């Protein structure tokens, strides 16, 4: 059956997977995805402009609605058309599908939304966006993100949002237990969490927890990176390729974290991701929590048990000589090297990374802009006063060792999470754990260098 044409003024339409498969002999991941999900959205301006493909965030929920509206707005302004395909909710699944897509050199997707940690893997398949963005335009973004997105001199992608690990704390409970400020070091956090936990449990909340953090899968690797770096123990693998995990400060950091499990942190922490932590914190059953900025607006919504009773700060440092640091995260847009319309695709990237769009996303979705100036915007601060704290925290962000590993980073994340899981369950010592990670990292670096 033929594909129905858009009626005048129609901008959004669902296309079935069978229609897509009938359109091309070759089956790419996004066509299979559309069959599995049953639908994809075609956002376009009726007319005869250029049609490009974009693999972006999920089309479901409020974020999907805003993204589709913004794509539609760009299409109306330019007269071009966008076939918009949402990524799976699982980042590892999306990354795997992107790798298959790039290996096939498909021209079907022109613009990809990629994670902070995918830059090196994506670099061989991306055009250099310095051909479309001048230095002044790039200087408007956080410099550490532009640096992260630059691989061997090539600007792989341009950021549209950023993320960083934060410490959430209950302001009312700090006041109740006479703590003048949030913890500056992990030792302080441990003592404060224990004091508050003991007091709240004695006061009638047996499920109250001192400190919540992510102990599941890559979340565990991210938390461990923050602990180790905060103690001066490096980033597991340094930017120059040196494997640094096996050192006394890393061992000290891991040993400190192990004291939390079943003491100030739930025994089930090794099964917790971000949402499990958020739900407990929002229900009022925790004093401290490590999580990402997205949690703030959810925990502070009207009706929340802790609305107006918490704040954020930098994660603690590992002692007086340590460093405050949260892991860097975020999303950026790249243009595929296999695109038949790189100029049009780059224009879409420029639109989504613009001041206007990043401000819209901040106001409507509480998205974290990649532009420092927007954290001083009066409209944004009126809606989210706590944004003012974030630039200083972003400036201290630590990057994960994905740049030196490329496609092998996911394997490192699994290795680190697996070994740390064993360690936290008391199966191995910290010394054995860093030794196992060091050994595995050496093998992964050898493989990465072979590529």
Q: Average pLDDT, to the nearest integer? A: 89
Which range does the strand content fall in? 5-15%
Shape designation: globular
Terminal Cα span: 45 Å
CATH architecture of the largest domain: 3-Layer(aba) Sandwich
CATH class of the largest domain: Alpha Beta
The total number of structural domains is 2
The structure class reads alpha+beta
DSSP strand tally: 13
| The CATH homologous superfamily of the largest domain | Periplasmic binding protein-like II
Radius of gyration: 23 Å
The largest beta-sheet arranges its strands as 1-2-4-3-5-13-8
Q: How helical, in percent, are the residues? A: 40-55%
Please count the helical segments: 19
The main sheet comes to: 7 strands, mixed
CATH structural fold name of the largest domain: D-Maltodextrin-Binding Protein, domain 2
Low-pLDDT segments: 1-47
Which terms summarize this structure?
451 residues; alpha+beta; D-Maltodextrin-Binding Protein, domain 2; 2 domains; 19 helices
Please explain how this structure is put together.
- The chain has helices spanning 17-23, 29-37, 61-78, 91-103, 119-122, 135-139, 143-148, 171-176, 186-202, 218-230, 248-258, 274-282, 294-299, 342-352, 355-365, 378-383, 390-394, 409-424, 430-450; strands spanning 12-15, 40-44, 51-56, 81-86, 111-115, 150-151, 154-155, 158-164, 166-170, 209-212, 286-291, 310-313, 328-335.
- By secondary structure, it is α+β, with helices and mostly antiparallel strands.
- It has two domains: 12-164 and 329-394, D-Maltodextrin-Binding Protein, domain 2; 166-327 and 402-450, Periplasmic binding protein-like II (D-Maltodextrin-Binding Protein, domain 2, 3-Layer(aba) Sandwich).
- Strands 1-2-4-3-5-13-8 form a seven-stranded mixed beta sheet. A four-stranded mixed beta sheet has the order 10-11-9-12, with helices on both faces.
- Helix 3 runs antiparallel to helix 15.
């Amino acid at each position: 059956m033929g594909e129905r044409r858009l009626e005048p003024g129609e901008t959004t339409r669902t296309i079935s997977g069978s229609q897509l498969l009938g359109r091309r002999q070759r089956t790419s991941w996004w066509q299979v995805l559309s069959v599995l999900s049953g639908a994809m959205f075609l956002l376009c301006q009726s007319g005869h402009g250029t049609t490009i493909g974009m693999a972006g965030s999920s089309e479901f929920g409020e974020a999907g609605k805003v993204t589709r509206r913004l794509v539609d707005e760009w299409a109306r302004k330019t007269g071009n058309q966008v076939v918009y395909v949402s990524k799976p909710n699982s980042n590892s699944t999306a990354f795997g599908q992107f790798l298959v897509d790039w290996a096939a050199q498909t021209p079907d997707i022109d613009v990809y939304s990629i994670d902070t940690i995918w830059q090196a893997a994506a670099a061989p398949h991306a055009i250099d966006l310095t051909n479309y963005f001048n230095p002044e335009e790039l200087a408007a973004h956080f410099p550490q993100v532009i640096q992260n997105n630059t691989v061997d001199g090539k600007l792989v992608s341009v950021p549209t949002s950023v993320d960083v690990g934060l410490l959430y704390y209950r302001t009312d409970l700090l006041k109740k237990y006479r703590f003048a400020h949030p913890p500056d070091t992990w030792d302080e956090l441990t003592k404060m969490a224990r004091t508050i936990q003991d007091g709240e449990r004695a006061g009638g909340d047996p499920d109250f927890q001192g400190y919540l953090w992510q102990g599941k899968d890559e979340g565990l690797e991210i938390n461990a990176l923050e602990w180790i770096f905060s103690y001066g123990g490096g980033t597991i693998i340094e930017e120059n390729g040196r494997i640094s995990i096996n050192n006394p400060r890393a061992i000290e950091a891991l040993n400190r974290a192990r004291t939390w499990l079943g003491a100030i942190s739930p025994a089930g922490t090794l099964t917790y991701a971000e949402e499990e932590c958020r739900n407990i914190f929002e229900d009022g059953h925790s004093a401290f929590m490590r999580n990402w900025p997205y949690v703030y607006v959810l925990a502070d919504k009207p009706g929340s048990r802790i609305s107006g009773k918490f704040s954020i700060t930098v994660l603690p440092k590992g002692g007086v000589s340590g460093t405050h640091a949260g892991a860097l995260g975020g999303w950026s847009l790249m243009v595929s090297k296999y695109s038949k319309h790189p100029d049009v695709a780059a224009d879409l990237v420029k639109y989504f990374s613009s001041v206007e769009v990043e401000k819209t996303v901040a106001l409507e979705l509480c998205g974290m802009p990649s532009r420092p100036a927007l954290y001083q915007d009066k409209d944004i601060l009126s809606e989210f006063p706590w944004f003012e704290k974030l630039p200083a925290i972003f400036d201290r962000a630590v990057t994960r060792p994905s740049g030196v590993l490329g496609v092998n980073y996911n394997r490192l994340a699994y290795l680190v999470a697996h070994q740390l899981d064993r360690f936290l369950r008391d199966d191995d010592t910290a010394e054995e754990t860093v030794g196992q990670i060091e050994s595995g990292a050496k093998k992964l670096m050898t493989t990465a260098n072979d590529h």
